[in-house]
Automatic annotation (TrEMBL):
Belongs to the isocitrate and isopropylmalate dehydrogenases family. PANTHER family: D-MALATE DEHYDROGENASE [DECARBOXYLATING]. It comes from Salinicoccus halodurans. It is an enzyme of class 1 (oxidoreductase). One of its GO terms (molecular function) is magnesium ion binding. Its EC number is 1.1.1.83. Keywords: Manganese, Metal-binding, NAD, Oxidoreductase. Gene3D superfamilies: Isopropylmalate Dehydrogenase (3.40.718.10). This is D-malate dehydrogenase (decarboxylating). Residues 6-352 form the Isopropylmalate dehydrogenase-like domain.
Amino acid sequence: MTKKFKIAVIPGDGVGKEVVAEGIKVLDHLAQESNGKFEFEYDHYPWGCEYYLEHGKMISDDGVEKMRDYDAIYFGAVGFPGVPDHVSLWGLRLAICQGLDQWANIRPVEFLPGVPRRITHPDADNLNWILIRENSEGEYSGIGGRNFDGRGEGKEVAVQTSLFTEKGCERIIRFAFETARTRKRKKVTSVTKSNAQQYGMVLWDEVFERVSREYPDVETDQWLVDAMAAQFVMHPEELEVVVASNLFADILSDLGSALSGSLGIASSANLNPEGRTPSMFESVHGSAPDIAGKGIANPIGTIDSASLMLDHLGLEEEAKALHEAIRATTGKGILTRDIGGNYDTEDVTGAIIENLSVVT
Ligand code: NAI
Ligand code: MG
């Protein structure tokens, strides 16, 4: 019997629309070639900055609740000039991640063949690590306020509070240890700034030490975030699973993807690991207004996020095949401009689909 997966598609803004369309082409190809094993049923949602300009909100009132009916959410990017970034991000992406308690954000950093990297490590081809980002609280708890609301009187005060709960720290740290157990080296690196942030991040460190005692088979390491930024560049071979707070992992993942070539190739998954709500798959990059509408965006981050989605849906073989097809494509030098090539978005997708036929 054919397995049907219901996917909510939210292309969002800017290049988000372009790269999600490419991802769907690849998913359709896989479904077609599956000989009836599975198919995807998509519902497209127009939420984003254009929707906001028309309706005064980034998502419909019942939008987050509607998402619960799906097996997964495939997301582009949100944000465009004309709508303040904090309005668009909180109104759509964070509304979904936090509303559906997608508390684990997984961001692999991989050095793809043929992609010029910004790191001179002798064994760069074999480097890959995975960032595990706390995705429900921390610096993005949204707690705070402002007085005088920007009246320009020079008296403004703003408070932005980070929230660290023992439960929130424990579940993401435990998730990192479980992830490490599935990997070769079995090592977890925890990143905080607990010398300066003496409450929340000290709690994180304490929970890390407590949970680590339950995983004697996993090697551990603890770093301050500033030193970790340097470590990413100087000793990437020391990294395998890196777990950090919402803000720190956000920053470090952009650094990681830039080192591996470009923001355009980085994939991610926002997971509710208990499976109570659907998970959401999206590239790490934003809506890239500087290149939007030109057909030159790199689709790999979003297509590789579809591979994470396939894996999550239990289509492990197809996920692997897609990832290999991406590697084969970059290996042959089919690259967009951000990674030193001259190919357009659609050329890269076409090559990935062609390589899929070879690997499947
Ligand atoms: P960005 O990731 O959109 O762009 C940063 C740089 O990377 C730009 O030079 C852009 O051209 C390049 N780039 C990004 N994606 C690319 C791709 N697929 N192919 C080739 N080059 C690519 O970040 P920026 O400029 O800080 O933010 C733009 C908008 O995106 C803002 O409104 C921001 O709030 C939003 N944003 C949304 C995110 C999301 O929806 N998850 C994440 C990050 C930013
Ligand atoms: Mg980011």
